[in-house]
């Protein structure tokens, strides 16, 4: 069948499906009959797309059907925000499964941070004046006097904690939003933050204050940095969708990537609240030994990654079994 014959034969169903979806723009609800019709058309157009990908992979009709099904999928699977079951499902299944599905982007974000961090740490440890290049002149002067800027008076810790939470959430959002610039701004933020933090540790180690800085950072840092990497990875997903949209238009590819990436970014807020609470109230405590700070950081990391790696795996197995039975 020629592509023009295929279009003429099926375009009435495609137009009807578009009409049903477009009723959403006017906030017009579908009738019961229209809902059943929508389901039938959705399945039919899915078959059309499979056929188009096989027989007409380079034709515009294939891209059109991709876009049409993307819009239809979004319309059908709208969630009722008042249903608490969706919130429970988000934390028990959607979030950890999405993290596992997109772990490569998180790993890339981690590498974009840690490699510049190691370089700047070594550089400032050997040549502390190099810290001035990273904007760490004030920190270098403080460390040279055997002091550290992380000493927070007890009566100021509640306010400091709130400020830290807000600032960290802002950074996570910026790193995520940087993906819109084809990932370039997100990459820039990850690299710069890696240089700053690595440079600060190098300076602290040079002036013999490395243990003090480690004691302050370790308790909250595991969660805090993990969230930055996850948010950075989510932003990189947006950038990759724009750079490599595949069979979709860039707008549709971005929309698909955003729905997946937002799942990860939403989790940044509660996790950074936890990290900010630890950073504001526990991390500045100099009375608590270093081993206790390390224990808190390790425990928080183990809990976080155990959850992200293991949660929702039962649902994954059930889906795999269902898919196998359907194929059989």
What does this structure look like?
It is a single chain. The chain has 328 residues and is mostly helical. Helices cover 78% and strands 0% of the residues. It has 13 helices and no strands. It has helices at residues 3-22, 32-55, 60-76, 84-101, 103-126, 137-144, 157-177, 184-206, 210-243, 250-266, 268-282, 290-310, 313-327. Helix 4 crosses helix 12 (290-310) and helix 7 (157-177) runs parallel beside helix 9 (210-243). It is elongated, with a radius of gyration of 25 Å. The two termini are 30 Å apart.
Q: What is the gist of this entry?
A:
The chain is mainly α and 328 residues long.
Describe the secondary-structure layout.
Blueprint: H1 3-22, H2 32-55, H3 60-76, H4 84-101, H5 103-126, H6 137-144, H7 157-177, H8 184-206, H9 210-243, H10 250-266, H11 268-282, H12 290-310, H13 313-327
Helix pairs in contact: 1-2, 1-3, 2-3, 4-10, 4-12, 5-8, 5-9, 7-8, 7-9, 7-11, 8-9, 9-10, 9-11, 9-12
Protein traits:
328 residues; mainly alpha; disordered C terminus
């Amino acid at each position: 069948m020629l592509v023009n014959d295929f279009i003429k034969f099926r375009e009435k169903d495609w137009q009807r499906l578009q009409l049903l979806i477009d009723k959403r723009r006017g906030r017009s609800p579908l009738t019961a009959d229209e809902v059943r019709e929508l389901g039938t058309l959705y399945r039919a157009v899915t078959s059309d797309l499979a056929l188009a990908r096989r027989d007409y992979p380079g034709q515009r009709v294939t891209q059109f059907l991709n876009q049409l099904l993307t819009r239809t999928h979004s319309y059908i699977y709208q969630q009722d925000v008042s249903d608490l079951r969706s919130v429970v499902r988000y934390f028990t299944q959607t979030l950890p499964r999405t993290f596992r599905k997109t772990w490569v982007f998180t790993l890339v974000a981690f590498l974009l941070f840690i490699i510049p961090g190691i370089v700047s740490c070594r550089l400032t440890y050997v040549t502390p004046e190099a810290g001035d290049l990273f904007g760490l002149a004030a920190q270098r002067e403080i460390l040279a006097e055997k002091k550290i800027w992380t000493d927070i008076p007890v009566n100021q810790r509640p306010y400091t904690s709130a400020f830290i939470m807000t600032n960290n959430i802002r950074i996570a959002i910026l790193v995520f939003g940087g993906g819109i610039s084809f990932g370039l701004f997100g990459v820039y933020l990850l690299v710069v933050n890696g240089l700053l933090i690595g440079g600060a540790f190098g300076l602290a180690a040079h002036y013999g204050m490395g243990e003090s800085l480690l004691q302050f950072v370790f308790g909250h840092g595991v969660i805090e940095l993990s969230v930055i990497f996850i948010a950075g990875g989510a932003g990189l997903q947006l950038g990759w969708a724009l750079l490599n949209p595949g069979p979709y238009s860039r707008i549709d590819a971005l929309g698909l990537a955003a729905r997946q990436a937002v799942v990860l970014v939403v989790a940044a807020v509660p996790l950074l609240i936890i990290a900010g609470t630890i950073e504001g109230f526990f991390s500045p405590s100099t009375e608590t030994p270093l081993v206790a700070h390390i224990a808190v950081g390790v425990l928080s990391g183990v809990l976080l990654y155990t959850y992200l790696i293991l949660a929702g795996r039962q649902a994954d197995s059930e889906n795999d079994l269902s898919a196998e039975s359907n194929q059989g």
